[in-house]
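The following block was generated as part of the benchmark described in Methods. Ligand: S-adenosylmethionine.
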Amino acid sequence: MKEPAGGRQLEFFQRDREGNLRDRKNFEFGDPAFSSNKKLPIHRWVPWVAGFSQSFVQSGLERHLSDRGTVLDPFAGVGTTLLEANLAGHDALGFEINPYAAFASRTKLLAYKANPDEVRRATKEFLEFQASALQKGIEPKTSAPAGFRTRGVFYSPKVMKKVLLVRDFITRVKNKRIADLFQISFASTMITYSNYSYEPSLGRKSSVGRPDVEDFAVAREIARKLDEMTSDIVWARRILADYRPRPSGKVINQSFFDSYRTIQSGSIDLLITSPPYLNNYHYNRNTRPHLYWLNFVKSPEDMHALEHQNFGKFWQTVRELKKVELNPLIKNREIIKTISTLRKKNPDRAIYGGNGWANYAATYFNDCLRFVKGARWALRRRGTALVVIGNSILQGVPIPTDRFLGAIAESVGLELIDIHIPRATRVGNSIIQSDVRVSKAGKKQKLYEAVVELRKR
Ligand SMILES: C[S@@+](CC[C@H](N)C(=O)[O-])C[C@H]1O[C@@H](n2cnc3c(N)ncnc32)[C@H](O)[C@@H]1O
């Protein structure tokens, strides 16, 4: 198969993972679960509990973009959509409110600009620096972030010293691009050598029966990560070199709900995203170590601001409010009825009962409305949006979030083309799986994930 000169021949070919070109014949959606990204170049850099898979995005791009276009991800996470769009020769734009996730996406998208030889050199210097500091008993100059508090000890003393020496080294790296790669290699490994783990929410290793990490070869782990990253950079440079001009990649660390100022109406050809699910998974709390250690937040007040901008806010943020009403523009009877059923559940349980969860669900669907309005604004005529979303069970009440989102989208004039269900079950989070919510829903209720396909008329 002949290599194309640039993105213009995309209507006939797509690249596979090895960078080879192949025919676009098979248009089935890939499984949206992130786990399959763990071995793929660049995607594997930053683990993200609620990410989605490269193959899903790739199939969406193949199916909906025949020419070079602009792809939007309003809830970019660690940038799966944006990176895949660039690798396939499309321009990419993302919004992400979590500063760590936005930083990770941006670093991944721009990594091809780093010189692999310089990264290798810096990695070698880093290993030498660490070894010599430890051998000579040099005390670290930097300290742990003052505002970062945890119930248990986050790093055992020996590990802490090594981590601070990592910080010392990074502050000395003058080349910003290389310093960013070091920050990612640290951030993506920092939980491994801490006394915490994801289950999938962040908690103490000891509470799931695992021992604390007394000591760890921190520098070796980071260097291993950097080696992996360097070989991925070489790979990406090879792929992106074919595109003239290079596809652009931009990540805006802002709420998508404020995007009207940034996006020109009708400028987006394809939207591929996965907003937060109605499962109260707490992206901000779960990235607290990264946010503090990389200096993105300094105090609980900074965290608070982030929580209030999050899609659907969080149950913790709205549970004490008297009654959050659905936006009157949401007229779908099933949505209204579901919220009202939920509100009446377990009144004896005060903020843990139905009213708190109904407040959360109402806030969530109000934000679905803001989201689809933004999508309608951004998309060009006949442009498609693919939205991966999971259903929910709150207080035993099943909530078909996919269908509800579809109905809300139709109410703002988008066309609901289809709801695809690529896989029937998914891993819920600890809150959703807790007794109160799942067991009462009965055996037939399953958690699933759907792709809601929308089109601008
Ligand atoms: C399900 S994750 C997306 C994961 C992404 N598909 C990936 O593969 O990395 C949802 C993301 O939406 C972000 N988010 C939540 N509210 C937002 C808002 N109002 N504007 C922009 N991003 C938001 C969260 O921080 C989270 O990273």
